Amino acid sequence: MSFIPGQPVTAVVQRIEICKLRQCDNLILGFSIGGGIDQDPGQNPFSEDKTDKGIYVTRVSKGGPAEAAGLMIGDKIMQVNGWDMTMVTHDQARKRLTKKNEDVVRLLVTRKSLEDAVRNAMV
Amino acid sequence: MPAEVRQEQSPSNQTSLAMMQEPQEIVEETVTIEEDPGTPTSHVSVVTSDDGTTRRTETKVTKMVKTVTTRTVRQVPLGPDGVPFPEGSSPLGSYTNSIDRRFMKNGERFSTPQATSTLTRSYNNYSDSYGETPEGPYRHYGLHDGYGDLPDSYGSLSRGVNYRPRYPYMASSGYRPENSYTLPIRKDDYSHVAQPQVPLGGTVDLNRSQPERFQAEPYGLEDDRRSLGPDDDEPYDLESDYSTANRRTVGGANHGRHMREPPRVRGGYEDPIEADLIDDRHPYMPNLYSAPLAQAELGSLASLDRMGPMGGRRSPSADSVRKDPRWRDPDLPEVIAMLGHPVDPVKSNAAAYLQHLCYENDKVKKEVRHLKGVPLLVGLLDHPRPEVHRKACGALRNISYGRDHDNKVAIKNCDGIPALIRLLRKTSDMEVRELVTGTLWNLSSYEPLKMVIINHGLQTLTNEVIIPHSGWEQEPNEDSKPRDAEWTTVFKNTSGCLRNVSSDGAEARRRLRECEGLVDALLHALQSAVGKKDMDNKSVENCVCIMRNLSYHVHKEVPGAEKFQEPSTNQAPGSVGPQRKKKDDAGCFGGKKTKEEWFNQGRKNGESEKSYDTLDLPKRTEPTKGFELLYQPEVVRLYLSLLTESQNYNTLEAAAGALQNLSAGQWTWSNYIRATVRKEKGLPILVELLRSDSDKVVRAVAIALRNLSMDRRNKDLIGSYAMRDLVSNLPSGQQRPAKNLEEDTVVAVLNTIHEIVTDSSENARSLIQAQAIEKLVAINRTSQSQRETKAASYVLQAVWSHKELRNSLAKDGWNKTHFQPTATSQAKGTRSNKPAYDDTTLPLMEKNQGNKKSISGDMIPMDELDPDGYSTIDQKDKDCKYKSGDVSSDLAEREPLKNDTNRKQFVRTNRPAVNLVDTCDVKPQPVDSWV
Q1: Which of A54, B28, B590, B688 has the fewest CB atoms within 10 Å, measured from its CB?
Q2: Taking a C-beta distance cutoff of 8 angstroms, is the pair B892, B863 a contact?
Q3: Residue B761's pLDDT band (boundaries 50, 70, 90)?
């Protein structure tokens, strides 16, 4: 999912809708994110392009809402409820995902297997 | 929040039914109604405060709960004419009957005094009994003009009480109040006491009428402004005798409302009403307690000042007292005297009222004690009537709550603890069990009572509560699925009590460990919690804390422990653990070579890894049980699950503390534990918790890591992967990090670092790479804390002792002076300021000794450390702020005192697992947030 500066970024995305789970006072999604423009992209084990500062799914808790919705480790989150996630800080992404007043988050994610599948289909 | 006592919830319906069958008894009925959540709450009692000494155990009744209307009906033997015998053998006092609401609504219908046809049954009963009663007087009331003028005051139901026809009672003027418990003022009024109003039929009425809207609470806390809608607008021309009769009944339940009437009363019916009012407030009746008594001048209110904590919830009676100085509540001595009253409901209501008065009011508690109320209450615990022992127990629970240990001692001194235990054995009523265990929990927070509770109650608590609620079965039925634990209030209270007593030193631990079924049941409960992923509740916290406490010093205190000791790591494997091991020897170690490899060869990674992986834990031919379960390697997984999943800081701390305790000491089992933690991938979990926001979690984890690093392989791993997290918990000079950890924690972290870098130049290198030297030097030079200074100084010395590192240190601009103890820190190094942490759950004594032998490093002047510098055992006399001064207490001492305030969502931040980190990588670590 690398991009060429100046060119529009294209990506194969999947829509994933996650209903937050209420645990006591907290609404949880059941996954963890890494990355962000304020983080060191070189340490992101999931990105192909080590300069990618996007938000990545680093862990998905077993049996959690995210897993049920089909989110996978290594997915790159493109949008959250329509908000762009490719150029945000880690904390901005976290906050966007954890809005207390939203019970559902709709994600656009991309992952390598999706891109591969599309590429194969086109071949 | 242990104890929620709901006075109102008492399931006394059955009781009252039973009682009804007894003639000439007070019939008390408690009706439980769902109350509208919108109405103001009544706090019967509840404490949420966390004073350092006790768990809140008082009770709170929120108003959304059920309210109960208590009716007390006295059945009086009637003479042939329907008039009660004047000398009624039963002390009947007044009768209080609550009118059902329907009844009240119907009030409007009584527009004419003659409207007998509209009378509800109770009225009819009444008239049956008193058929000969002249109607005249009633009519008189109804016709009275004055009612019409009276505005809202008529709206309240209770008002009716005051208007109760008094004439019939005149007949019973001979009635003599039978005892001294009556309030003085009342005495002359007893002639007016009107039992007859509650005819036999009254019981029928009770059955049939369920109050719908109007809920009176026994304590009179109900909102006295609540009035029946329709009545508000009704001019009281309906105030017919019939309706008054009804109202009066209502008033009985609605004691609080009495207050409003007086003004009206004065206007219209001074004398007669006065008499009626008095009737209603017969001191024996439950409503009495909240009902105002004439005689504000007694000034007893001062002693009953219970308003403070309840804020807006004022007792209507108090309010009304202000409005009408003629009424008062019974004062404390009177209430206490009523505890000895021969009539059971009087006792129970007195106890209930005491409970209410004591709620969050230390002054009243003290006064109750001084007035010798505690022995009376304890005596009532053995009372056969559920109502009585329940309420007595409720009062005791409130009294036992709080910092004032004298109250607890008072309960103990009149043998209250055995009485509570007896009651627990006897009753199957959940509410009573909650109250008993809640009281015991309160009592258990006071050191001197812990052993008493153990002596009297340990096995009972275990058998009656812990085992059944844990779901553990001694002999599991093959067919049945293992049961899960039930997190009931009773279980929570009991586990809290045991948690407290388990901190009472070695003897207490021994008793608990040897208590049959206790450890098994607790473990089962915890496993069930892990299985259900329900690990954040208080019961789990209590169970883990008990386990942690019982794990303390297992390697010394458990019977036969000496056989497992491994004084040095070179001990021949065959010599350890004779008794359980004999059969296991081969399986355990597979020979000396394997074990030694495993234990001593940490540095050679490949090999030691291999030998570790092939290490067999002891195989058992029969299931372990009892205290042996405490230190079986299987528990490691349990604790690690808790550490991974729980959001409760106290649970996290306790689980880490348990691992810390188990991995301390030199005996066979701690070796297994240390290896198992690694094998179960526990190190990353622990290291991750170093990032916790909770001070005490960080501390417990740091100390656990230190103990775990006694295993050489663990030491290398921790040095490689945990150093950065350890260092990040250190303050930068005087500037505290974001977390602002306590001194104890910083010292613990420093000691752990010291342990890790000692004798491992690689780890020391990691420390340098984690840029810790700057922090350490800063702490050493500038910290305000002597203990921190000293601990940092030891770490620096340890680093400097690695000669091969000095070059690179010099390159970074450090020189020898940075690593030498500063003059001040040396001066500060007094015995009372040991470098080691104060955390007494860390039994490192043996470790210390063992290390002295095995440590090859010559650099660390161990002698300069105080001899017991590493042992946390003898430091109890140190100034530990958590300590109450009792040297026999453990860390757990403070556990029970903690509140939940710090329980918040624990978000593990940062990267997923330690092993992602390259030790040589000095770049900031990737952040990773759970969402």
Answers
A1: B590
A2: no
A3: confident
* pTM (two decimals): 0.52
Q: Which of B200-204, B471-475, B595-599 has the lowest mean pLDDT?
A: B200-204
| Average pLDDT, rounded, for chain B | 62
- How far, in Å, CA of B122 to CA of B580, rounded? 76
Residue A98 near chain B (CB below 8 Å): yes
pLDDT tens-place string over residues B829-838:
333 333 333 3
Distance CA B605, CA B803 (A): 23
B871 versus B182: which is more confidently predicted? B182
Measure the CA–CA gap between B708 and B259, rounded to whole angstroms: 69
Q: Given A23, A45, A90, which is nearest B929 (Cβ)?
A: A90
CATH of the structural domain A13-122, one choice from 1.10.3720.10, 3.40.250.10, 2.30.42.10, 3.40.50.1110: 2.30.42.10
CA nearest to B440, candidates B7, B3, B9, B47: B3
pLDDT digits (tens, 9 = 90+) for B476-504: 666 666 788 888 999 999 999 999 999 98
> Got the DSSP string for B654-705?
HHHHHHHHHT-SSBHHHHHHHHHHHHTTHHHHHHHHTT-S-HHHHHHHHHHH
Dihedrals phi, psi of B867, to nearest 5 degrees: -50, -40
The Cα–Cα gap between B232 and B226 comes to 10
Residues 6 or more apart whose Cβ sits within 8 Å of residue A121: none
DSSP state of B118: G
The reply to whether residue B923 touches residue A29, judged by beta carbons under 8 angstroms, is no
pLDDT of amino acid B441: 94
Tokens 């100390």 belong to which residue? Answer: B703
Coarse DSSP helix, strand, coil percentages of chain B, rounded to the nearest 5 percent: 55, 5, 40
DSSP B565: B
Neighbouring C-beta atoms of residue B141, cutoff 10 Å: 24
What is the pLDDT confidence band of residue B457, given thresholds at 50, 70 and 90?
very high
- How many A/B residue pairs have CB atoms within 8 Å? 55
Q: Taking Cα atoms as reference points, which of A60, A45, A57 lies closest to residue A94?
A: A57
**What is the gyration radius of the CA atoms in chain B, in angstroms?**
35
The answer to whether B888 and B854 are in contact (CB under 8 A) is no
Res. B581 pLDDT band, cuts 50 70 90:
very low
% of chain B at pLDDT higher than 70: 46
Q: Are B450 and B444 in contact (CB under 8 A)?
A: yes
Q: Which of B647, B924, B931 sits opposite A29 (nearest CB)?
A: B931
CA distance B916 to chain A (A): 9
Q: How far apart are the first and last CA of chain B?
A: 29
- Domain boundaries along the sequence of chain A: 13-122
Domains of chain B: 330-445 (1.25.10.10), 453-473+484-561+624-680 (1.25.10.10), 681-818 (1.25.10.10)
- Average pLDDT (B271-288) is 39
Mean of pLDDT values over B91-116: 40
- Measured in whole angstroms, the distance separating CA B177 from the mean position of its chain's CA atoms is 42
Closest CB from B923, B924, B931 relative to A98: B931
Range with the lowest mean pLDDT among B61-70, B764-773, B820-829? B61-70
Question: What is the complex's ipTM, to 2 decimals?
Answer: 0.82
